[in-house]
Design a protein that fits this description.
- The protein has helices at residues 3-16, 23-56, 73-76, 112-118, 179-183, 190-203, 220-226, and strands spanning 89-96, 102-107, 142-145, 172-173, 230-231.
- It is an alpha/beta fold.
Length: 232
Amino acid sequence: MNTDTRDRLYSLMGRLRPPETPPSARLRAGPDRSNIRILVLICVVAAVVAAGYLWMARPRPRPSAGPLPSATLADVRPAVPATPAAGSTVVVHVLGKVRHPGVITLPSGSRVAQAIKAAGGVRPGTKTGTLNLARKLVDGEQIAVGVRSPAAVAGAPSPPPSGGSAAPAAPLDLNTATAEQLDDLPGVGPVLAQRIVDYRTRHGAFRSIEQLRDVSGIGARRFADLKPMVRV
């Protein structure tokens, strides 16, 4: 091969060889591909985060509430006061064979039995007889328990019937009454009745009703109950 032919061949081979990439170009190409990878990774992460948020924020069915409890009559019924309104009271006089005879104030609508209970109840061995314990009280009435009702005071209205015995025609005479008759007086039992008779025997006839205060067992309160029912 002569020199001209060889030079032509080298020249032709040089044209067919691809141009070499400069080092600076290779350095620029590397970072571009790395940036693309980073962007792709960021997009993937963002997509995963968005999918997780949408999953957490999805609407969920609420559990159905159980049937509401049905309202009872007690729930809707208005409260009824257990006691009468203030000031609605009755005042009665309980006398006879009760532990604490006297004037008693009770709520309006109370019964005879409640008045007797408020007076301490009947004394042992006492019977109420035909007294109507279920009758409603009337303001100002007098309830005789186990004794005859005293005569009505002149000028005062007669008390309503209480179911007890009829009232005597006149107050009981302290100087002629027997122990059995004195026993029927309110707050007087067999023992106290005998004391009255014994006092009369020792000191003579009663000269005034006030002498009853000298009998043992008759205090101011019991004397006040007996005073309108006896005489001398």
